[in-house]
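Sample log: Aminopeptidase.
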Amino acid sequence: MSKEITADQTARYQHALATDPTAKVLERAVSHQGILATSADYASEADMTPVFSIDLDTGKVANQKQSGRCWMFAALNTMRHHLADLFNLSDFELSQNYTNFWDKFEKANYFYENVLATADQPTSSRKVAFLMTTPQQDGGQWDMLCAIIEKYGIVPKSVMPETYNSSKSSELNSTLNLKLRKDAIILRQLVADHASDDDIAAAKDKMLGEVYRLLSFSLGEPVSEFDFEYRDDDKNYHIDKGLTPKTFFDKYVGWDLSDYVSIINAPTDDKPYNHTYTVEMLGNVVSGRQVKHLNVSMKDFKDLAIKQLQAGQSVWFGCDVGQSSERQKGIMDTKYYDKDALFNIDFSTTKAERLDYGESLMTHAMVLTGVDLVDGQPTKWKVENSWGEKVGTKGYFVMSDAWMDEYCYQVVVNKQFLPDDLKTIQANEKPTVLAPWDPMGALA
């Protein structure tokens, strides 16, 4: 039975504040300075000095600007680090706009296929509502970028630079989603009218042609062949003619992307450790690489990241960046804000509880480029962000090990670093399919 708030209750709450000698002081501080500034514990800054026992030199940070392409920037940065070492090119970026174009084009087709697959369900069904809430967006996951590269390759940023709409994506996203929802109405009606497969395919083909035109006007049309002209760090001139995006990837990055696997830490009851998982309706390239996660303990999670850093290779990772994070100073530390002490309220929850109750999920992807090991144990991590050089230490952040425990959910590592038992599970186990809205399906 529902119960209203009574006058007696309110009177008791008011009396408790009136008899608390600190209440008015705290009220003035919080109301004028805000919750975060008032609860900040600046002693955390001393612990988060940017000095690391393992510290990879990865050059200048990139800037995703007003777009949600962190996952793409982070993944291309790991490849850029490798390319820079091989070809003596420290001040160099791969084109995030090129992969962005093909990602959005493929996401449109992926959306159309999901619309057709659920066309027999009412618009009130949870799956259809989930699809229509955000037909496509800037975000993604590691496996989704691999699917794009495996199909379309990559190019230098000089070949396909940023545009207004890639750097400030809200107008493009709202326009493209308007079109996709309109197209969903048409496709669902065709199915309801028992249209032939050929008629549905023709309608979808017309829609994709319009998406291609929309993206070409907004982002520029992707190149199919180009010359790569550059000077290396020693000022030596180079030109490589007649490259395609796929031959460029093969020659200048040369990774077998199947070697790189997604490792997650999701300590919820529905996801036992040492098993693999995928997420329904999560992806971009139809018939392309499937999203596949191997869930492990936090100890294994961190050990794998450390092994890759020790081998001299940076690590893509996904986290909930807004939690206990000071953006301007570039500090992510569970001790930075003490809201419990400020309000005398216990806000504590476990990592599993935050996932189960919607308090946390993966919101951002960055790159681990260092770690501070003391007596063999990590104490803090060096993080390359993609928010430009005006935040953190020239764009680099410091993350406490405790923060990693609580708010990091995914790393991507070369499978050579997996112990044999986990390597076998990752390679051979058919993944459990999670619901489309599972937090492990969040797009960074």
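Observation: The mean pLDDT is 97.
Observation: The first strand starts at residue 54 and ends at 55.
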